[in-house]
Design brief:
The protein has seven helices and six strands, in the order αβαβαβαββαβαα. By secondary structure, it is α/β, with parallel strands linked by helices. It has two domains: about 100 residues, Aldehyde Dehydrogenase, Chain A, domain 1 (3-Layer(aba) Sandwich); about 60 residues, no CATH class. Strand 1, helix 2 and strand 2 form a beta-alpha-beta unit. The longest helix has 16 residues. The chain is elongated, with a radius of gyration of 19 Å. The chain starts with a helix and ends with a helix.
């Protein structure tokens, strides 16, 4: 729900109505967020959800005459398409694409807290979010301590059913994501 919140709330605060198209693999979290906002009193129709795949659902939104601004989070490949389409009609466009976020650990860091951040950043939600930390930059003087503590923590992660409360890391969402992870490895 973080990304839909980041996208919707500034527009709502400014008095704008919104149309949101969640990622096709994860529409339920956006639906639940919008439902909670409506339950809290947001008038129906202020936020509208369009679900589906990019070419059938997203592309018509980007080119629709009534939409003045587009915000996209996703791959660089799709972001390039969205940016070019928005530029044709001079729509305001914000793109967050292909993040490879880093956690930087310096010698004065609280190493245990840095390890907590690295474990959550890299393995939380199976690393399948744009804010996932996919790189670690560690100062040489604390490198060995950090890596040893990180490895101890990672070895203890329980991989399994994401709906099981005892699971630390669930499965990747689909075969394409699995291939992406395998490519990185």
């Amino acid at each position: 729900m973080a990304i839909p919140s980041w996208k919707l709330f500034p527009a709502l605060v400014c008095g704008d109505a919104c149309v949101i198209k969640p990622a096709e693999d994860t529409p339920l979290s956006t639906f639940n967020l919008v439902s909670a906002l409506i339950d809290a009193g947001l008038p129906k129709g202020v936020i509208n959800i369009v679900t589906g795949f990019g070419e059938e659902a997203g592309a018509p939104l980007v080119t629709h005459d009534d939409l003045r601004a587009i915000s996209f989070t996703g791959s660089s490949e799709v972001g390039r398409i969205v940016g070019q389409a928005a530029a044709r009609t001079f729509k305001h466009c914000s793109l967050e694409m292909g993040g490879k976020n880093a956690i930087i650990v310096l010698k004065d860091a609280n190493i245990d807290l840095a390890v907590d951040g690295a474990v959550w950043g890299g393995f939380g939600t199976t690393g399948q979010r744009c804010t996932a930390a996919s790189r670690l930059i560690v100062q040489k003087s604390v490198h060995e301590e950090f890596v040893n503590k990180l490895l101890d923590r990672v070895r203890k992660l329980k991989v399994g059913n994401g709906l099981d409360e005892g699971t630390d890391m669930g499965p990747v969402i689909n075969e394409q994501q699995l291939k992406t992870v395998q490519k990185y490895v």
